[in-house]
Design brief:
180 residues; mainly alpha; Serine Threonine Protein Phosphatase 5, Tetratricopeptide repeat; 2 domains
Length: 180
């Protein structure tokens, strides 16, 4: 059943994957891989609550599962619960500071937090630029992993337009030295 559920997921038949994997976890409630694919299928179906529940089950079954914490962070980020997302991605990074996928998720969390600062003309205030710089910094940490390198490069290239320039930093430092 796990193979069938994964195959349905791989071809984009998320509803069928969800059904098969749901039956599997009823029969085998400790099947971590089934919960992973069930979570992914749920996200693709817009069932964020169910995805979060599936990833929480992964962590319950395997408390040291770095991928489980990362997936849970991603699911929370999808529903704009960035504080919860950050909490879980930090747990993943405490367990494995070099886990590229967790750095990608953390970059996406910062990116999502920065997006509201972009105005209709594409301008970003300094506070927003600092958040985008944090996103770039996280994506840079993922460059070492061949699986995430290309994605991270694209994100870095895109987000760099919103990061602080030397001029921004100069003026910000001046404001901090000479408060009104």
């Amino acid at each position: 059943m796990l193979t069938l559920g994964k195959q349905y997921y791989d071809i984009g038949e998320n509803e069928k994957a969800y059904e098969v994997l749901g039956q599997l976890v009823e029969m085998d409630p400790e099947n971590v891989e089934a919960y992973f694919y069930m979570g992914r299928s749920c996200l693709n179906l817009g069932k964020s609550k169910e995805a979060i529940d599936a990833y929480k089950k992964v962590i319950e079954l395997e408390p040291d599962n770095v991928k489980g914490y990362s997936e849970l962070a991603s699911a929370y980020n999808e529903i704009d619960q960035h504080d919860a997302a950050e909490q879980y991605v930090k747990k993943a990074l405490r367990q494995d500071p070099n886990y590229a996928y967790a750095h990608v998720i953390y970059g996406e969390i910062h990116e999502a937090r920065g997006e509201p600062f972009i105005d209709e003309k594409g301008n970003v205030p300094y506070k927003g630029k600092v958040i985008f710089q944090q996103a770039v910094d996280e994506f840079k940490k993922a460059l070492k992993d061949p699986e995430w390198r290309g994605y991270a490069e694209v994100k870095i290239e895109y987000l760099s337009q919103f990061t602080p320039t030397a001029e921004d930093q100069f003026f910000q430092e001046g404001k901090n030295k000479n408060p009104k």
